[in-house]
Design goal:
The structure holds three protein chains of three kinds.
Chain A: E1 3-12, E2 15-25, E3 30-34, H1 41-48, E4 56-61, E5 64-66, H2 71-76, E6 79-82, H3 94-99, H4 110-123, H5 139-152, E7 157-161, H6 169-185, E8 189-193, H7 197-203, E9 206-211, E10 214-220, H8 225-233, E11 250-260, E12 265-274, E13 278-283, H9 289-297, E14 304-309, E15 312-313, H10 319-324, E16 327-330, H11 345-352, H12 362-375, H13 391-401, E17 408-412, H14 420-435, E18 439-443, H15 447-453, E19 456-461, E20 464-465, E21 469-470, H16 476-483
Parallel strand pairs in A: 3-8, 3-9, 6-7, 7-8, 13-18, 13-19, 16-17, 17-18
Antiparallel strand pairs in A: 1-2, 1-4, 4-5, 9-10, 11-12, 11-14, 14-15, 19-20, 19-21
Helix pairs in contact in A: 11-12, 13-14
Chain B: H1 2-8, H2 10-15, H3 18-34, H4 39-51, H5 54-79, H6 87-104, H7 109-136, H8 142-162, H9 195-214, H10 216-226, H11 228-233, H12 238-264, H13 276-286, H14 294-315, H15 320-336, H16 347-350, H17 366-369
Helix pairs in contact in B: 3-15, 4-5, 4-14, 5-9, 5-10, 5-12, 5-13, 5-14, 6-7, 6-8, 6-12, 7-8, 7-12, 9-10, 10-12, 13-14, 13-15, 14-15
Chain C: H1 3-32, H2 40-58, H3 61-85, H4 90-108, H5 134-139, H6 143-161, H7 163-173, H8 175-180, H9 185-211, H10 223-233, H11 238-261, H12 267-270, H13 273-286, H14 288-296, H15 299-309
Classes of the chains: A alpha/beta, B mainly alpha, C mainly alpha.
């Protein structure tokens, strides 16, 4: 199906998320849509897949103007979108999830639906058990299921939003294979929205580049990645260089730490992190790395083993006690875990300070917050509420709230959802911490980030921690194999 | 958008606070007409019941005091995101503890009364702590534990009245024998109103005002109420603060219970709380969680509720009419919002001067939230 | 106690539980669609009063049930309107309606207290009622009890085996995903909130016309809250919920038996049973200690134990949904 977007505009108040975008997509090809965070990619794709109506502009499918009233309407007209977090029903069985909204009759015809599902899945090389429940599936399997649902619904145009985040190397291969099948053999149109330029180069024949709500150009692929990056950012962003640093004494020691939850067991983790060291945990989401991080933060009691902080046995200490002893923890969901919507920056500071006054000294705290706003370059006032800040500024606020000095800083996805510039600034702040002798332990889904910023790396797969590798000597390839569970 | 609305319809904003009152009056008038009663006469009877004489007015004030005590206590629990529906039972336990002192100990009034009050606050706080611990340790939603503990508190009262504390002249379900004189709060002019209780309510009001406005504890409760997970990561212990907030409210409710037995009545009665706890919940909701509104709305409730008792005496119509009037008002405000929520006219709150900012209602998903096993455990 | 007495007690438990079962099924449908209707106590008081009064005035209990269902739909409709259309707190609106229903029923029903009116007649099912044990328990009852039993299975089937049920559960689990599949989430929520309300209304009348016949102030006060607790205890499943309702029905019978056994204990003490049970069952399904107990068990037992002892609510319960 040939897709034409003509002068698509989407305004949120004064913000122009899409500002007159026109582009054409031919059938049988894989296109890339790239741009930095906030460039307007997701808004454009939400409009094309019926989740949001545009403020203005036209969508033409095979030359015919189309208006979508809902995502289901868009799918019926041939456009389907696969979200990074697939829009499925976690407590449902696969087959119920597949049937929901498909069949208009009251009674469900399980027999033919099962056959249909299995046949369609195997055509694209997917193996799906119709009776499994969705929350027992891996992210890759959930994607496959969602793709099958879209294809069964008659999608001729498929939009894939960051599909390779959080899936294994093997699943990635299957996914790419299926994308080629859809385009080359079936003449479908595929749009890949991605940050990962290597994948874009490998898969797509043409890239559209967005910047600040506008289409700034198109580029035949493959090409030199620098050309794409320059279009995305206007100029090449300076990557912060990792300052050289000598490691100090051990700060965190894990000895035979075993964590049991009813979904996963993480056995016998042994690990030492030194003062000033940056240690990265890689692995698919749910492989155990977050549990280990939480065990270090006192949020998840280990089943057995010992945790030492600066030589002191802190096994079984709670989060608040560790917090007082120099452990900082920054979770991934900023407004869900870390900041309180509706409270001002000053109020956050008062709560985060270790010394608690009974009566609040408002002027004093306001002054202290003003100082930190300047230090951490937060765009906001002491009275601003945390939810009014942008993502990057929320991240800076979280760092501004950490106490100094810190012995150990634990981070989940420190730059998730940030554009390159904000991510870079975040790492600069972290390097400053390291200069103070703080040991940093972080998890990330972005292998490049882990390789670029860690001193040493451990990979988690199915609850097991791999051998520790030196970041200077490893490659994304080696880590990819470890993520897949190969030694 | 709000700007244009407020400039275009300023009169709507000014009239808006009256709309729920008018709607509630229309609704109750319709009910009265349905029962063949004249609304005008009925409202006059209610008015006379509240303002027809100094004893009546003092009665309104005497009923108003425990309402204020419970309402300001509930502001603390609402701030912490808790639906303390068990406040009703906490009043009852306060009354029972005060009654125990009044029945079992003897001494001069200056000694007995502080002990009674202390016991009552302890009783209410302990009953509230039970709800809190069931929530933090057992993940039982405070709405359900509160309701169950309300039921149990009433059953305990009935048991005491008909059993161990039954008056010597024989068992009845009405109440215990009247307390010794020294145990009762000094009352004004043969009325049910004790000036001392007014002083206590004033102190409670001031304490809550300053806790919410200028203390770290108040800020912790605010953070806890808005986002427990973030509050925890910021160093707020949800268990500790939940228990403290509940016990604080329970203590004030228990004090309210003491006022009920020691000045409104002179003995422990079957329906000792008189629904004051539930009324206080409605008052706080109607005040949109703003403390400076609470005394005024509580006074209005007291007028309506006292008036409807006179209504029943004069016209034989059921006294629940007062509850209907206030209930419809609260429902109306909840459904269609205060003027502020509608974005028309901000002057509703400017009168409050430098009041602490309005606390939004606790999150709606509290029922579901508590029984999710170990929210922070996943990977 | 001999066998026939025991069977009579058990049959009365089934009868006592029947209104709770109906209310629980209604509320399960509402909550599975994502809406909490907390007004049950007030709704059931109002519908019990309405059902009784209409039954008395028309001498037709069917009309009583019909009127009660309409009352339930109005209360549920207010909750739905307030939370879906007006975006207000479901808990607050439900709670105020619970109190308002109490006062309204007292006022409107004031001239009908302690009177006798229409009653649902007993109607044994031929052949089936002669079966040993199950016959007298389930088939020698009346239409209300049969309705409750059938409703449990119909509700289960509707939720788990129909397209409508998938859409209903989808709206309560993940409304954005349901919307993406063409489900009109808010329409589904209106529908099942109001349908659930109708069943709650019928449950109220099932008390005043069948189980606790008649009307007085606060006639069925407390049962609505118990029904809400059973929904949680029942893990939002109608079959488990029905067991919960039978358990509560049993407390009444148990109180009678205990009273006979310990005549020296004050009668009021036994009224505490349902409240104690309410706290205990919620503790059982919620507490961390239960989880620790399960984890201490042999590995192969853990899964089935967790299924029995733990529950999880619909993921989007009590949250608002906006398209786009």
């Amino acid at each position: 199906m040939r897709v034409e977007l003509r002068d698509i505009r989407k305004y949120f108040g004064a913000v122009k998320a899409n500002d007159g975008i026109s582009l054409t997509l031919e059938p049988g090809k894989i296109y890339a849509l790239v741009g930095e965070n906030g460039a307007g990619k997701s808004t454009l794709m939400k409009i094309l897949s019926g989740y949001q109506p545009p403020t203005g502009g036209d969508i033409l499918l095979d030359g015919q103007p189309a208006r979508f009233h809902s995502p289901a309407d868009a799918l019926a007209k041939g456009v389907g979108m696969l979200y990074q977090d697939p829009l499925d029903m976690p407590p449902f069985r696969v087959i119920d999830n597949y049937l929901l909204g498909r069949d208009r009759r009251l009674r469900l015809d399980y027999k033919s639906a099962r056959a249909e599902l299995v046949a369609l899945a195997s055509r694209y090389g997917f193996a799906i058990d119709p009776n499994a429940t969705i929350d027992s599936l891996s992210m890759g399997e959930r994607q496959q299921l969602e793709l099958v649902r879209l294809l069964a619904g008659g999608a001729q145009v498929l939009i894939l939003d960051e599909p390779t985040t959080g899936i294994s190397a093997e699943q990635k291969e299957i996914l790419f294979e299926s994308m080629h099948k859809m385009t080359r053999e079936e003449g479908k149109t595929v749009i890949l929205v991605s940050h990962k330029l290597e994948e874009v180069q490998e898969l797509c024949i043409y890239a559209y580049v967005l910047r600040r709500g506008k289409l700034v150009g198109g580029q035949e692929l493959p090409c030199a990645s620098e050309a794409l990056v320059e279009m995305m950012f206007g100029q090449l962003p300076q990557r912060s260089r990792r300052p050289a640093f000598t490691l100090g004494t051990p700060v965190l020691e894990l000895q035979d730490v075993t964590i049991n939850t009813y979904q996963l067991t993480v056995p016998d983790v042994n690990l030492t992190v030194r003062a000033g060291e940056v240690f990265g945990f890689a692995g698919l989401e749910g492989s155990g790395q977050r549990l280990v991080l939480q065990a270090c933060a006192g949020l998840m009691p280990p089943g057995k083993g010992h945790v030492r902080l600066g030589g002191q046995d802190v096994t079984g200490w709670g989060y608040h006690r560790l917090q007082q002893h120099g452990v900082g923890y920054v979770a991934a969901g900023r407004l869900e875990e870390g900041l309180v919507a509706g409270l001002s920056l000053t109020e956050h500071l008062i709560l985060a300070r270790p010394e608690k006054q009974f009566f609040i000294d408002w002027p004093g705290n306001r002054a202290a917050m003003t100082e930190r706003i300047a230090t951490y370059q937060i765009v906001g006032q002491p009275e601003t509420t945390a939810d009014a800040l942008s993502g990057g500024n929320q991240q800076r606020l979280l760092f501004a709230l950490l106490n100094t000095p810190l012995k150990l800083l634990l981070l989940e996805h420190p730059t998730r959802g940030l554009d390159v510039r904000s991510a870079d600034y975040t790492w600069q702040l972290l390097y400053n911490r390291r200069a103070d002798g703080t040991a940093i332990l972080f998890i990330s889904a972005d292998l490049d980030e882990i390789i670029a910023h860690s001193d040493r790396i451990a990979v988690f797969s199915g609850g097991r921690m791999s051998r520790v590798v030196d970041a200077r000597e490893t490659t994304a390839d080696e880590l990819g194999h470890l993520i897949g569970g190969q030694a | 958008m709000n700007q244009t609305q407020s400039s275009g319809s300023g009169w709507v904003a000014r009239v808006w606070p009256l709309v729920p009152i008018v709607a509630a009056l229309l609704f109750t008038s319709a009910l009265l007409l349905l029962f063949g009663a004249s609304p005008a006469e009925a409202y006059r009877a209610m008015w006379d019941g509240s303002f027809g004489g100094s004893d009546k007015i003092l009665g309104v004030i005497a009923f108003w005091v425990p309402l204020v005590l419970c309402s300001v206590g509930l502001l603390i629990t609402f701030t912490a995101g808790l639906w303390n529906i068990g406040v009703e039972g906490q009043i009852v336990l306060g009354a029972i503890f005060a009654s125990w002192v009044a029945l079992r100990l003897s001494g001069p009034a200056w000694l007995l009364i502080p002990v009674e009050i202390g016991a009552a606050m302890l009783g209410g706080a302990l009953w509230a702590a039970l709800s809190a611990v069931l929530k933090t340790r057992g993940r039982v939603n405070e709405i359900f534990s509160g309701l169950a503990l309300n039921g149990l508190a009433i059953i305990l009262t009935n048991y005491l009245i008909s059993g161990p504390w039954q008056p010597p002249e024989g068992g009845s379900f009405r109440g215990t024998a009247p307390f010794q004189d020294a145990a009762l709060l000094p009352r004004l002019l043969e009325s049910r109103f004790s000036p001392l209780s007014l002083v206590l309510a004033g102190l409670a009001f001031a304490a809550v005002f300053f806790i919410l406005r200028g203390t770290t504890w108040g800020l912790k409760l605010k953070a806890l109420g808005k986002n427990p997970a973030s509050a925890y990561l910021l160093g707020v212990s949800s268990e500790r603060e939940t228990i403290m907030a509940m016990m604080f409210c329970g203590a004030l409710a228990g004090l309210g219970g003491a006022v009920r037995v020691l000045s409104w009545f002179d003995s422990l009665r079957q329906s000792i709380s008189g629904g004051i706890g539930f009324l206080a919940l409605l008052i706080v909701m109607l005040a949109a969680y703003r403390i400076l509104w609470v005394p005024f709305i509580a006074f209005f409730f007291s007028v309506v509720l006292n008036g409807s008792i006179t209504l029943q005496l004069k016209t034989q119509l059921h006294s629940s009419l007062g509850g209907i009037l206030t209930g419809v008002m609260v429902l109306f405000v909840l459904l269609f919002g205060s003027a502020k929520q509608l974005g028309i006219g901000g002057q509703a709150s400017t009168g409050a001067g430098d009041a602490p900012e309005a606390i939004p209602p606790p999150p709606a998903d509290t029922i579901a939230g508590d029984i999710t096993p170990n929210v922070r455990g996943g990977d | 106690m001999n066998d026939s007495q025991l069977i009579a007690v058990l049959a009365s438990i089934v009868l006592q539980a029947s209104p709770l079962i109906i209310a629980v099924c209604g509320e399960i449908m509402t909550e599975r669609s994502g809406v909490v209707n907390l007004s049950l106590d007030g709704t059931m008081l109002m519908s019990a009063m309405t059902g009784f009064v209409v039954g008395l005035r028309t001498d037709n209990y069917w009309l009583g049930f019909l009127a009660a269902a309409v009352v339930g739909m109005i209360f549920a409709g207010i909750v739905a309107l307030g939370s879906i259309r007006l975006g207000q707190s479901q808990v607050a609106i439900g709670f105020v309606l619970a109190l308002l229903g109490d006062d309204l029923s007292a006022f409107l029903g004031q001239n009908y207290t302690r009177m006798s009116g229409a009653v649902v007649p007993k109607a044994g099912i031929p052949l089936l009622k002669d079966l040993p044990v199950v016959g007298p328990l389930f088939f020698d009852q009346n239409i209300v009890v049969y309705f409750a039993i059938v409703l449990v299975f119909v509700t289960w089937w509707w939720l788990n085996r129909t397209q409508a049920g998938l859409q209903l559960r989808g709206a309560g689990e993940r409304p954005t995903a349901a919307f993406a599949r063409g489900v009109n989430v808010n329409r589904v929520r209106y529908l099942y909130t109001i349908l659930g309300g109708a069943l709650v209304g019928i449950a109220g009348a099932a008390y005043s016309l069948n189980v606790k016949i008649g009307w007085s102030d606060g006639h069925v006060r407390g049962f609505g809250w118990i029904a809400l607790a059973i929904v949680i205890f029942g893990g939002w499943s109608p079959i488990r919920g029905a067991f919960g309702a039978l358990l509560f029905g049993a407390t009444k019978a148990l109180a009678t038996v205990l009273q006979r056994a310990f005549p020296e204990v004050s009668v009021v003490a036994f009224n505490a049973l349902p409240w104690l049970l309410m706290i205990l069952v919620l503790l059982a399904v919620g507490s961390d200690y239960t989880e620790r107990f399960i984890t201490a068990m042999p590995h192969s037992w853990q899964r089935p134990l967790r299924r029995v002892l733990r529950v999880s609510p619909p993921m989007a319960l009590g949250t608002a949904f906006h398209e786009g």
